[in-house]
Write a structure and sequence with these properties.
Blueprint (H helix, E strand, L loop, with lengths): L1 H13 L9 E7 L5 E7 L3 H4 L3 E5 L6 E3 L6 E4 L5 E7 L6 E10 L2 E8 L2 E8 L4 E7 L7 H21 L4 H7 L6 H15 L9 E2 L9 E15 L11 E15 L7 E20 L6 E20 L5 E23 L2 E8 L2 E16 L2 E12 L7 E10 L1
Antiparallel strand pairs: 1-2, 1-5, 2-3, 3-4, 5-6, 6-7, 7-8, 7-11, 8-9, 9-10, 12-13, 12-20, 13-14, 14-15, 15-16, 16-17, 16-18, 18-19, 19-20
Helix pairs in contact: 4-5
Length: 397
């Protein structure tokens, strides 16, 4: 069972759709001749968009993938993200990228994303350009590498501040050592405010933070679970397993990750099960009749995983999977044999973790979503002390 769950879990998370657009959004491409062609652009991660543009022109049946240099650039509608072909030195030698325009004006600001690193390029109207690199913590493989990256970033800050010297406000804001997109856009906005003295803003295009923001939803749920293989840490009978059901209530959040997985979202939840009795009858070694054991406990469960919608429409099937952690409280076990209590004890909390997989369907109700799904939860250590089958109803706000 454990092996089967692991295989299904791996397959679930490896599903990728590569033959069609994953997350189409309306927009247009700009050809090298300066013409614009409207259609749908696959709205993927910033990393992927810096390397390719998958475009389906209006009236066409098949998408076409453009590389940097094949077209001048592309842009999403509603003042959305804007990418242009630029030759930039991100690695050892200059290469063509689709650089994201964060600000266009007297001081252009571009960004090229590469996995856990963002490379920002400040380009003054006279053509002078400086680079500033924003590295995540996990981009450094060692302490020595982290120190070297910090030294390089410090040098880059100095060069960028010098490029911005016409605006004291912009230079002072750069002293905060904040390399976030929002802050750098504000820096360049300050620069334009100081250098544009004719009453205009001089900004042709400015990045809107909401264009990168993922939609998040709050959800509440209730369900019933049947535990078909429940064991205690106070185990003293080899064949001792407990069977029974428990109600669950919970809440959580779900974040759309359409830019990574078609129809995908990441879920995080917390559920609570009140104290429930699990009963079991077994023959004690050397005994003459069955002993009756009662095991009581409550549960608090945490889970983190992915949900994938299959298709489009008002009612669609879903699959889900991920990992969970269960905290047991109020553990109490008692055993009665021949009308005598031969064990009655409490002990501190117990906990374990494992994987879950499930399937079901969801239906749109106005702006909300209602789901019904069945799931299997399996502990992943030792002999396993939980195999849980449940059905849950969710209401997503």
């Amino acid at each position: 069972m454990k092996k089967s769950l692991f295989i299904l879990y791996s397959l679930f998370f490896s599903v990728q759709i590569s033959v069609a657009q994953v997350n189409p959004k309306p927009g247009y491409i700009i050809t090298n001749a300066g013409d614009t062609i409207r259609g749908n652009i696959d709205f993927r991660t910033n990393d992927k968009l810096s390397k390719e543009c998958m475009f389906l022109a209006n009236g066409e049946s098949e998408s076409k993938t453009y590389k940097p240099g094949d077209i001048e650039g592309f842009r999403f509608d509603n003042n959305g993200k804007f990418f242009v072909t630029r030759r930039l030195k991100v690695y050892d030698t200059p290469e063509l990228f689709f650089a994201e325009f964060l600000v266009q004006g007297k001081m252009n600001l571009y960004c090229v994303a590469d996995k856990y690193v963002e490379y920002f390029f400040f380009e003054r109207e006279d053509g002078e350009m400086e680079q500033l690199t924003n590295r995540s913590v996990i981009s450094s493989s060692s302490v020595q590498k982290a120190k070297e990256d910090k030294r390089i970033t410090k040098e880059e800050y100095g060069k960028v501040r010098f490029l911005l010297h016409d605006s004291r406000t912009a230079v002072n804001r750069m002293n905060d050592m904040d390399v976030s997109r929002k802050t750098l856009v504000e820096v360049v906005r300050d620069y334009h405010h100081d250098v544009c003295t004719d009453g205009s803003s001089c900004i042709v295009y400015e990045y809107k933070e909401q264009s990168d923001r993922m939609k998040a939803h709050i959800k509440v749920f209730a369900g019933y679970a049947y535990f078909s293989h429940e064991r205690t840490l106070n185990q003293n009978l080899e064949d001792e397993t407990y069977h029974g059901g428990a109600f669950e209530l919970g809440f959580g959040t779900e974040v759309d990750i359409e830019r990574v997985i078609k129809g995908g979202s990441a879920e995080l939840g917390l559920s609570f099960s009140p104290k429930t009795k699990f009963e079991h009858d077994t023959m004690v070694r050397g005994g003459h009749s069955l002993s009756h054991t009662i095991y009581e406990k409550g549960r608090i469960s945490f889970y983190l995983g992915l949900v994938k919608r299959l298709g489009q429409g008002r009612i669609v099937p879903i699959v889900r999977g991920g990992g969970f952690y269960v905290y047991h409280f109020g553990n109490h076990e008692s055993r009665i044999y021949e009308n005598k209590t031969i064990m009655d004890m409490d002990w501190e909390y117990t906990a374990h973790f494992g994987l879950y997989l499930g399937a079901g369907a969801q239906m749109a109700v106005g702006k909300q979503v209602v789901r019904l799904h069945g799931d299997c939860y399996k502990s992943m250590f030792g002999k396993g002390n939980m195999l849980k089958w449940g059905i849950t109803a969710e209401f997503i706000l």
